[in-house]
Amino acid sequence: MKKIINEFKAFILRGNVLDMAIGVVIAGAFGKITTSLVNDLLLPLVSWICGSRDMTALNMIVRPAEYNEAGEVVREAITLGFGSFVGTVIDFLLIAVVIFAIVKASNKVHDLTHKKEEKAEAAPEEPPKPTTEELLSEILEELKKK
Fold first, then answer.
1. Dihedrals phi, psi of 90, to nearest 5 degrees
2. How far is CA 131 from CA 57, 126, 136, 138, 143, in A?
3. In this predicted model, what pLDDT tens digit does every residue of 97-115 receive, in sequence order?
4. Max alpha carbon distance in the chain (Å)?
5. pTM for the complete prediction?
6. Which SS3 state, helix, strand or coil, does residue 26 take?
7. Of 48, 37, 52, 53, which is closest to residue 87 (Cα–Cα)?
8. Cross-strand bridge partners of residue 66
């Protein structure tokens, strides 16, 4: 039993497992924020533009309900509830845009980091170039030797 506990500890304490757990927690919190943004701020504006009080009330009736003489429902109505679907799509698009921005920024940082590393590796130190005076003195010494 102790061996299993130690293996579990080693598994949990790995860096990638902790990173993944943190990502899941942050994603859950971010999902709540975007859902609130969509449901509490964006959808009321869209429903106001569409002339409805509530976006989830925007439905399209495919088949109306049928009633008998007593007023009881004989056949239920068939409705397409596109209002809540639109809210879910807006929520998804908002999260997708934010994730795209994060990935794009991460890729840019990654590229900049690798360019700096490549420059450091590709640029070997060149010996210093001799000055004009040094060249002239070498030429003069060679002439004196001949």
1. -60, -40
2. 84, 15, 9, 11, 19
3. 888 888 899 889 888 888 8
4. 129
5. 0.53
6. helix
7. 37
8. 75
Q: Between helices 82-122 and 15-37, what is the axis angle to 10°?
A: 140
DSSP E strand stretches across the chain: 60-63, 66-67, 73-75, 78-80
Residue reference for tokens 């030797």: 145
> Is 58 in contact with 83 (CB distance < 8 Å)?
yes
Q: Which neighbouring-strand residues pair with 60?
A: 80
DSSP state of 69: T
- Spatial distance between the Cα atoms of 99 and 75, rounded to a whole number of angstroms: 45
pLDDT tens per residue, range 11-70: 777 767 777 878 888 888 888 888 888 888 888 887 788 777 777 777 888 898 899 988
Instruction: Indicate the burial class of 82 (C-beta count within 10 angstroms; 0-12, 13-18, 19 or more).
Output: middle
